[in-house]
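Continuing the series of single-chain predictions for the mutant panel. This is the parent chain; the variants come on the following pages.
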Amino acid sequence: MSLKDGLILEFLEEHDLELPAKPLYRNLNRHGHEIGYSTVRQRLGELEDHGLIEKVDDAGYYQISQKGQAYLAGEVALSDLETNGDA
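Parent structure:
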């Protein structure tokens, strides 16, 4: 997990959004978060691998998952994510 992961998760949850990588990158920066496009793309893959976000459709739109919401609420430990990344 990266510091940027929490930023992406919180942004998706706070704004209740479904976004592909490029619009997510643009909106994060528009809201004052300095993050690169390649970083967003990379972190989306990691977050999906850990089950914290999920693809909504084949067009590449992502939303925060229930597991991601539980993680932000402190109900899922970081150690659980790293040992059970594909769970």
